[in-house]
Specification:
Elements (H helix, E strand, L loop, with lengths): L20 H8 L2 E5 L10 E2 L2 E2 L15 H5 L12 H11 L3 E7 L26 H10 L3 E7 L15 H24 L5 E5 L4 H4 L2 H14 L4 E2 L24 E5 L14 E5 L19 H13 L2 E7 L9 H17 L17 E5 L5 E6 L7 E5 L4 E8 L2 E5 L1 E6 L2 E5 L9 E9 L2
The protein binds ligand FHN.
The site of ligand FHN has 8 residues, from loops.
Length: about 450
């Protein structure tokens, strides 16, 4: 048991994981969808014929673009092909159990008609709310919604990166009020949202707001009991983020796994976590160019399996186009992942770390309170035999393929608690799942 050595007024609120049903459901999602959509989708990484190689949603910060010119993209926001039902169907088809949607990214443009700024959909040619119809469409498909919200807001006059003068301080106090108003507005407007996914909280100005952020977090949780908030929201008394100065996680889950996945269970320190991943190297908003390596269906399934095997959720990002349609590459990936998920989702949904030693063929997942463990296979040994090591007093009752539950696979005990599972050669080159029924002797 860790003891806290540094007295904190605004440190972690809890020592262990949440045990309530909302969080248990979150833990069982396994696979999610992220959506980055906003004005940046209109230029799509290109400005006056020049390609911007950085992340498309950051194009406003590119020196070549006057800020006011970027901000006037609001007058071009008219996504005539936006169809929330078809977005939700794509996510459903992929097998996503939750979606995280950018209500406001760093540029400050709000996809809902916020009362607190003019920089919203309401003042675009489109005029209508985007978030409400999306929440309804996803909920209708049985998909939970988490609202992404960037604290950093390039459009707000009160936003500061650092507070250096009295004027900065006055401006930033106004900005804090605005932020609180917007967050309470979102929670009141979209009451079925399960949580908030914060971003843009790394600047010197915000990391000094421990008391304000702590109070606001408590207020939001009181308004929406069960609300899920990750570790990117508030700093502690000393400006530490994610983990407080005593090393305890601040928030319901670790939000540090962006475009990277832990390698072993020790890396996650017993926390809940999600991994958010882009399809190319680092593009969240729509970028026409999509340079470099584009992840394949099999890679993304492997990432999903790896995350679940280490107790996390895998969240795949989509960057819809400015007209509201989703690019073909993303539709195809969703379909490909979905084809696999339809057959094998038992090894992903409500699954966790199985407590077994990792082997070279892939990843173990398991369900709490079940005797079954799943071997998600990505590398087939030339011998066709898959090694399994079990803890003492545990043996294998049966082994079968998840896709063909009636076939029994040969289990060979090679030494105490070590086995080979034998399969016949496979015609395709797709990941597959072996189910082990274990016998745990008392
Ligand atoms: O700067 C953003 C980036 O554009 C994107 O939204 C990602 C998603 O996790 N978050 C920030 C970088 O951490």
């Amino acid at each position: 048991v860790k003891t806290d050595t540094i007295p904190l007024k605004h440190g972690a609120h809890r020592i262990d994981k949440r045990t309530d049903s909302v969080m248990a459901k979150w833990r069982g999602y396994g696979l999610g969808q992220f959506i980055h959509w906003g004005l940046y989708a209109i230029p799509g990484g290109e400005w006056n014929g020049k390609t911007y190689n950085g992340a498309a949603e950051w194009i406003r910060s590119w020196n070549g673009i006057p800020k006011s010119t970027y901000d006037s993209l609001i007058y071009k926001f008219n996504p005539t092909k936006f169809n929330p039902e078809s977005w939700a169907k794509t996510a459903k088809q992929m097998g996503a159990k939750y979606v995280t949607i950018t209500t406001k990214h760093h540029d400050g443009f709000c996809l809902w008609p916020s009362k607190y700024t003019k920089y919203t959909v309401a003042n675009s040619p489109y005029k209508k709310d985007i978030i409400g119809p999306l929440v309804n469409a996803y909920n209708k498909e049985g998909i939970d919604v988490i609202l992404y919200f960037s604290i950093m807001d390039w459009n707000q006059p009160g936003w500061r990166y650092e507070i250096k003068t009295k004027e900065d301080s006055i401006a930033f106090e106004g900005f804090k009020k605005f932020t609180r108003n917007q967050l309470l507005e979102l929670l009141n407007k979209y009451p079925t949202a399960k949580g908030l996914w914060f971003d843009g909280t790394w600047d010197k100005s915000w990391v000094k707001q421990a008391a304000f952020a702590d109070e606001l977090e408590k207020e939001m949780r009181a308004l929406r009991p069960g609300l899920i908030i990750g570790s990117r929201f508030r700093p502690d008394d000393f400006g530490k983020r994610h983990n407080d100065s005593n090393g305890r996680l601040m928030g319901d889950y670790e939000q540090g796994w962006e475009r990277k996945i832990p390698n072993k269970i020790e890396d996650v320190h017993g926390n809940d976590w999600d991994c958010v991943m882009t399809v190319p190297e680092n593009q969240w908003g729509y970028n026409k160019a999509w340079n470099g390596h584009i992840k394949t269906v099999n890679e993304l399934i492997e990432m999903t399996a790896k995350c679940v095997s280490l107790g996390g959720n895998f969240v795949l990002n989509f960057g819809p186009k400015g007209d509201g349609s989703i690019r073909k590459e993303e539709i195809d990936l969703a379909a490909g992942i979905g084809n696999w998920m339809r057959v094998n989702n038992e090894a992903i949904y409500n699954c966790q770390y199985a407590g077994l030693e990792k082997q070279d063929w892939g990843y173990f997942t398991g369900k709490t309170g079940s005797n079954k463990v799943y071997m998600i296979i990505f590398n087939v040994p030339v011998s066709g035999a898959f090694r399994v090591k079990l803890p003492a007093k545990t043996s294998i009752t049966t082994a079968s393929l998840l896709e063909q539950p009636n076939t029994t696979l040969k289990v060979e005990e090679i030494s105490e608690n070590q086995y080979f599972i034998h399969t016949s050669a496979r015609a395709d080159n797709k990941p597959f799942v072996i189910v082990l029924d274990l016998n745990k002797k008392a």
